User: Fold this.
Amino acid sequence: MNPPVALPELGLWPVRAEAAPLAMYLQDRLGGQLAQSCQLYQPWLNSEAGTSQSQRQQFALAYRRHRQWIMIGATGIAVRFLDGLPQDKHSDPAVVVVDEAARFAISLLAGHEGGANSLAYRVAQLTGAQPVVTTATEALKPLVLGIGCRKLASVEQIGAAVAQALQQCPGATLAQVREVATIDLKAEEPGLLAFCATHGLPLRVIAREQIAQRAWVGQPSEWVRQNIGVDGVCEPAALIASPRGRLLLGKTALDGVTVAIVDDGEGWRSFIENLHDPA
Assistant:
């Protein structure tokens, strides 16, 4: 007897045919990174073939076939498709919703247990989308690390630079860090990826063009300007990733790694205080 064929790890569900190019791009980029390939669905073809099944019915039949899903379409459609399907956060497949313009990658279901939070960040890295994560654990972490590094900086070098930076901020710890931000040219830097994986931190990738438009650099680096084309990386990356945050620690450097720390906890506290006392 032949062994059962393993189903792909990830299902891609573009709601409309117009979203197929984005879905195929994600299939190509994510398929090689996962242990198994991605399966791309084209539900509109069944509708065109005259099937009596609606897209919602088709999705319900496929829902448990994959451990993770990326649905390309409106969040409202995703919510309607999922109605009645989730059962338990420990077993439900993860669902990330991406709009057709790839502006947002929303971790909608099974953020922690299913890995939707990490998948949302990965989709954001590939498309330039804004990752949207609303799980309480992440929401209560106020710090963002901006990191720049020389090519092939080791995970030990990055870890030492981060530790040095945190030591300069009384009370700040790695447990308070929500995410790491860097420039797109460093998106696949092995040491940086290893550091993030070791500490369970998502990597937020900021486009070089976006960093170039932000004059948020305390001390411009001539080396960075000549080799990357921007005045700096760590400070603007962290500030772009946390737009209501304040620069808790400007650029620090150690052994070819630069680190800046942004804190948005104060901005959140001010927002809450204004709700109670709008005057």
In short: The first helix runs from residue 20 to 31.
